[in-house]
Amino acid sequence: MTTTTPFTDEERVLLEGIAVRIAHARMAVPAMMFLETVAPMNFISSAMLTLASPVWRIAIPSSRIDEVAALLEKRDAIPSFLTIIDEAEARRVRDARAAKRRPPESTS
């Protein structure tokens, strides 16, 4: 059984970029907790995103906050966005661990 995403390709690229910025800022867990808390109320959560825009500016360009808020009003959007954030965080952690294991480069 295949699952469908509530996002177009362009919307998914936007949300993946946001997820990467969230992960690099090491804010994946707080962002996911916020989204999980407001997920049952998609419309209200999108309004809360607009109200909390100073916090979200870490990851979302201010010119796109309204666009992201509208995306999150879609049915199943928040669970899908949570998955995108989780994948970005997993990549960040994996890359950080791999970087620690690499031997230092010699400068001879």
How many structural domains are formed by the residues?
A: 1
Provide a count of the helices. Answer: 6
Give the overall silhouette.
Answer: elongated
Mean pLDDT: 82
> Biggest β-sheet: count, sense, barrel?
none
Give helix % range. 55-70%
Structural class by helix and strand composition: mainly alpha
Q: How many E-type strands?
A: 0
Could you state the order of secondary-structure elements as H and E? HHHHHH
- Rg over C-alpha atoms, rounded to the nearest angstrom: 16 Å
Beta-strand content bin: under 5%
N-to-C terminal Cα separation, in Å?
Answer: 55 Å
**Unreliable parts:** none
Description:
Helix content is 68%, strand content 0%. It is mostly helical and 108 residues long. The protein has one domain (9-98). It is elongated, with a radius of gyration of 16 Å. The mean pLDDT is 82.
Topology, element by element:
Layout: H1 9-24, H2 28-38, H3 42-51, H4 53-56, H5 65-71, H6 77-101
Helix pairs in contact: 1-6, 2-6, 3-5
Give me some keywords for this one.
elongated; 108 residues; 0% strand; single chain; 6 helices
